[in-house]
Specification:
6-stranded antiparallel β-sheet, mainly beta, about 200 residues, 7-stranded antiparallel β-sheet
Length: about 200
């Protein structure tokens, strides 16, 4: 079994990163990435006063869970919120007035494109206060492989047939779990993001 690791990372694992079209710079700690698809999972700390004025979109999908603070990206999101933004979802005037810490997944290299997308997203964005739900929040889809689910109890579940990221937001802990490995125990509901 894989153990969950604390997301309270040492300063040496963080780097300053300027996100296209925004300021000030964010702090980013990469947790994992796929060299083939360029998909990734990262912790991102948005400083108080962060903003991205104007509009644009990412070519891949983005999913994130707010661990602390608040951020406005296609709606207002606070601690415990899960957000799924399909590929090409337009974002306008994103802001984090008080700062935020999120864990974010991109389904490919996060290329920012200013302005409206040439094609509409295949599905609508999903925003859920995951503290209140269990089950699949985003199903496997042609544009974004894998699913995102919240499990109230992982004890006794069969190992997943695919690789997954497992997040325990209450404990601020995370693990990458290879296919066929039992899910770790958490202190609360587990968020499971599968990759195939």
């Amino acid at each position: 079994m894989t153990d969950l690791a604390s997301l309270d990372l040492p300063e040496t694992q963080w780097l300053d990163l300027s996100i296209a079209g925004s300021s000030p710079a964010v702090r980013l700690a990469r947790l994992g990435s796929d060299p083939t698809t360029r998909a990734s999972v990262s912790l991102v700390r948005f400083p108080p006063g962060w903003r991205r004025p104007g509009s644009g979109h990412y070519l891949p999908a983005e999913e994130f869970v707010v661990l602390e603070g608040s951020i406005d990206v296609v709606g207002s999101h606070g601690p415990g919120d899960y957000v799924y933004l399909p590929p090409r979802t337009d974002r306008t005037d994103s802001v984090s007035t008080s700062g935020a810490l999120v864990i974010a997944w991109f389904s490919g290299f996060p290329e920012w494109v200013p302005g409206a997308a040439a094609a509409e997203p295949a599905t609508a964005p999903v925003t859920v206060s995951a503290a209140d739900v269990a089950g699949v929040l985003r199903a496997d889809a042609p544009e974004v492989a894998g699913e995102y689910a919240v499990l109230r109890d992982a004890a006794g579940r069969d190992p997943l047939p695919v690789d997954a990221d497992v997040l325990d937001p209450a404990a601020r802990a995370w693990a990458w779990v290879p296919a066929g490995t039992p899910l770790p125990a958490g202190t609360g509901p587990l968020h499971v993001r599968t990759w195939a």
